[in-house]
Design brief:
By secondary structure, the protein is α/β, with parallel strands linked by helices. The protein folds into 3 domains: 164 residues, Adenylosuccinate Synthetase, subunit A, domain 1 (Adenylosuccinate Synthetase, Chain A, domain 1, 3-Layer(aba) Sandwich); 91 residues, Adenylosuccinate Synthetase, subunit A, domain 2, CATH 1.10.300; 158 residues, Adenylosuccinate Synthetase, subunit A, domain 3 (Adenylosuccinate Synthetase, Chain A, domain 3), CATH 3.90.170. Helices cover 32% and strands 21% of the residues. Helix 3 packs across helix 4, helix 3 runs parallel beside helix 5 and helix 5 packs across helix 6. The radius of gyration is 21 Å and the shape is globular. The model has no long low-confidence stretch (mean pLDDT 97). The structure holds guanosine-5'-diphosphate, 6-O-phosphoryl inosine monophosphate and magnesium ion. Magnesium ion binds next to loops. Magnesium ion (MG) binds next to loops.
Length: 431
């Protein structure tokens, strides 16, 4: 069995795209299983940056089958743009490279309008969503009203579903004093993107993934967002609307857990978060600004500044447990070069008590004060390091400290955005 899941172990933007890109070379299938165009996965190949939102990061490699599975929510307008980008860059040359599940949910303009209207109405209490319609689209799915990709090709079904959905959506939009949408407008909108989707429409991607694994092919599952943004286990309600953890790769694609061999937890050498919500180890001072600037921490989807803080090992321990992480990939270690000392949050203080496990209540998350241990820093630039033995001693101490604390090996270390800036402690997916 060769199913490998790559998930974000923090609040998103850990560098999942880069890890999937480097592992894709050794894989046959790359599957996006949840989320939508809220994700922004950045890949740097030969110094050129590509940001993908929906299409799996395996698309940059020849002869890989990329899959967008059932559990995703697809904005067909955003998808068309992205298809155009990867085609123009010469990465998408055949329709065989991409399979789009006919049972994925479609995001319509009214989902986006509702997402944005709700956010504005929440004022200070807003979630800080990406405004991409993710929440409203998943709501429709849970309410058993969603328009699935396959429905776009049956005009009678599409019309009937739109009529039923729009009655409710327009009432809500009216409540938020927003413009309303007609069935005709939405039918026309959908029609204009059909041609772009059709070549990739696949009735049963779950079966194809199952068969691939059964016949010894290597399947990489590309997570989006991060563990602490999981709709069930994250810092609810400051989360996204899908399950982002490893188990979701099975639920959202329709394959059994016994097909998964390993789970790679991707994490940054520090922590970031975009949008609102608890972030116990956040640095709201010059040091936070330093990490933000040095790490170039801007959201790949919205361009917003990412909040920055020290690495949070309480949150990471929680992520290790929730995902069953078997290997860790440590990203952006190069960003920490130049600091005299590096902080690591090892526990929280909540209501005067030391707490070693992630809270389950929002109010506890909000009250959590980070207990920071400091480790010695290093001055050397790491971006040119190509061998583990060339890492400064204090960088190695930092790596060992994290790995020991979490009880999981750090098998990949990233020292820059490029493919070549990757150090393998243990090769993954290598024969
Ligand atoms: P994702 O959403 O998890 O795929 O991550 P993003 O692409 O949103 O954000 C990660 C950012 O860090 C991107 O701009 C990457 O190019 C960049 N990056 C990835 N690994 C490294 C690294 O080791 N060092 C540095 N300096 N940048 C990195
Ligand atoms: P990748 O895959 C970081 C955050 C938003 C907001 C919350 C809910 O690039 O790691 P949503 O639009 O999903 O309803 O917003 O989740 N968020 C992300 N933060 N990286 C992402 O994706 C994110 N996708 C959503 O900022 O706080
Ligand atoms: Mg991102």
């Amino acid at each position: 069995m060769s199913g490998l899941i790559v998930i974000g172990a923090q609040w998103g933007d850990e560098g999942k795209g880069k890890i999937v890109d480097v592992l894709a070379e050794r894989s046959d299938f790359v599957v996006r299983f949840q989320g939508g165009a809220n994700a922004g996965h950045t890949l740097v190949v030969n110094g050129k940056k590509v940001v993908l939102h929906l299409i799996p990061s395996g698309i940059l490699h020849e002869n890989k089958t990329c899959v967008i599975a059932s559990g995703t929510v697809i904005d067909i307008e955003a998808l068309q743009k992205e298809l155009q980008t990867v085609t123009e860059l010469g990465y998408l040359v055949s329709s065989k490279q991409l399979q789009i599940s006919s049972t994925a949910t479609v995001i319509f303009p009214f989902h986006k309008a509702l997402d944005q209207a709700r956010e504005s109405s929440l004022g200070e209490n807003k979630i800080g969503t990406t405004g991409r319609g993710i929440g409203p689209a998943y709501e429709d799915h849970a309410a058993r009203k969603a328009i699935l990709v396959g429905d776009l090709f049956d005009l009678d079904v599409l019309k009937a579903k739109l009529k039923s959905i729009l009655e409710e959506k327009n009432a809500l939009l009216k409540y938020y004093k927003q413009e309303q949408f007609t069935v005709k407008q939405m039918m026309e909108w959908a029609q204009s993107y059909l041609q772009s989707v059709e070549p990739y429409l696949t009735p049963d991607v779950g079966f194809n993934i199952y068969r691939a694994i059964k016949t010894g092919k290597r399947v990489l599952f590309e997570g989006a967002q991060g563990t602490l943004l999981d709709v069930y286990h994250g810092t609810y309600p400051y989360v996204t609307s899908s399950s982002t953890i490893a188990g979701s790769a099975c639920t959202s694609t329709g394959i059994g857990p016994n097909m998964i061999t390993d789970v790679i937890g991707v994490f940054k050498a520090y922590a970031t978060r975009v949008g609102s919500g608890p972030f116990p180890s956040e640095l709201k001072d010059d040091l936070g600004d330093y990490l933000q600037t040095k790490g170039f921490e801007f959201g790949a989807t919205t361009g917003r500044k990412r909040r920055c803080g020290w690495l949070d090992l309480v949150a990471m321990k929680y992520a290790t447990r929730l995902n069953g992480i078997t290997h860790l990939a440590l990203m952006k270690l190069d960003v920490l070069s130049g600091l005299d000392k590096i902080g690591v949050c090892v526990s929280y203080e909540i209501n005067g008590k030391a707490v070693h496990e992630a809270p389950t209540k929002l109010s506890d998350w909000e009250k959590a004060k980070p207990i920071i241990e400091f480790l010695p820093g290093w001055k050397e630039d790491l971006t040119q390091v190509s061998s583990l033995k060339d890492l400064p001693r204090n960088a190695t101490l930092y790596i060992d400290f994290i790995s020991k604390h979490l009880g999981v090996p750090i098998d990949v270390i990233s020292v820059g955005p490029g493919r070549e800036q990757t150090l393998w402690v243990k090769p993954l997916f290598a024969n």
